[in-house]
């Protein structure tokens, strides 16, 4: 390699890449409704699309949205990063295959998807989405680890045109997208779903999990041997989630006909930001169906249901229960299920700033809604 003495400033491989795609890039603390974003023709993928790059993604995770025209498809692609897709609207099929674009190894996997479906193509496999509707467009979003991979290699040809096959993950075997059963994973003390397809995220029956919220229910998932994993979580109307913090890159998509808001504040504002005189550091983001937020690394964040139905969230984040990402998990210290008083990053209800509950109760009352947490927490001492 010859010496390079030019004075160009340093650049991010991922930021350079998404700017070159000539589609919109949406930034900020959150997106109120992904379905209302202005999209543009996406030459590489076909269809129309946009990128979302929120402050809390911090170069760890990427996010895109694509519209597939009626009766059309996206272009086939492969890449050396994890990707999990969720269908916001429409129905169709997906084709996934190993080997060369025109010469599959084994039998390609073909499965149907619809609104609420979530699935993941294994790393560096070819995949293509088809819209089966002759009249309505389909909307699909994807969370990825593209920023880390493109920043690390800063070579698009390598990332998108590498022939290496991860046969430890997928080699064209049948049954890859059969829906598996959930089980209790003792090391993580969580209900876990190792499956490559969830047919209906919105209608799925979740399992009691009150650690983070009164009346909470949830399930953790991991797909495709990825380090990109996540969870589904819901909590009742008139309730709110306990504040907690973790590493960067977590993306939270709201997937229910419900409304509410989230509070986020940096760790230097303290466990009780209002009492500490740091009200100006607390950020409020309102959300509804198809809203997207991403808390920054180490920031406490807390979710409040001010709607009339159960609020359900779909989270994408680093660190599956099989494959840890140490720099990310280290940000949670002793863990997100462990109280801050015991070395973790969870603020228990009895430890939180008293103003948080007062403000929430006042907002519910102003909107004619019931505060249901007293009933749900009866007998717990909280």
Short description:
The protein is mainly beta and 382 residues long.
Q: Top keywords for this entry?
A:
eight-stranded mixed beta sheet, Jelly Rolls, nine-stranded mixed beta sheet, 6 helices, mainly beta, single chain, 382 residues, 32% strand, 11% helix
Q: What would your notes on this structure say?
A:
This protein has 382 residues and is mainly beta. It has 6 helices and 23 strands. β15 and β16 form a beta hairpin. It is globular, with a radius of gyration of 21 Å. The relative contact order is 0.14.
What's the oligomerization state? single chain
Using the CA coordinates, give the radius of gyration.
Answer: 21 Å
Counted up, domains total 2
Q: Can you tell me the overall shape?
A: globular
Determine the N-to-C terminus distance.
64 Å
Q: Output the number of helix runs.
A: 6
Main CATH class of the largest domain: Mainly Beta
Helix content: 10-25%
For the report, how would you describe the main beta sheet? 9 strands, mixed
| Class of secondary structure makeup | mainly beta
CATH superfamily caption of the largest domain:
Jelly Rolls
Number of strands: 23
Catalogue the unreliable spans. Answer: none
How much β-strand is present in the residues? 25-35%
CATH topology of the largest domain: Jelly Rolls
What CATH architecture label of the largest domain applies?
A: Sandwich
Mean of pLDDT: 92
Order of helices and strands: HEEEEEEEEEEEHHEEEEEEEEEEEEHHH
Question: How do the helices and strands line up, and which of them pair or pack?
Answer:
Blueprint: H1 13-20, E1 25-28, E2 30-31, E3 40-41, E4 48-54, E5 62-68, E6 83-89, E7 91-99, E8 104-114, E9 118-119, E10 126-131, E11 138-144, H2 146-153, H3 156-161, E12 183-185, E13 190-194, E14 197-198, E15 207-208, E16 217-222, E17 228-235, E18 251-254, E19 260-265, E20 283-287, E21 292-293, E22 300-305, E23 311-318, H4 326-329, H5 354-366, H6 373-376
Parallel strand pairs: 1-4, 13-16
Antiparallel strand pairs: 2-21, 3-4, 4-5, 5-11, 6-9, 6-11, 7-8, 7-10, 9-14, 12-13, 15-16, 16-17, 17-23, 18-21, 18-23, 19-20, 19-22
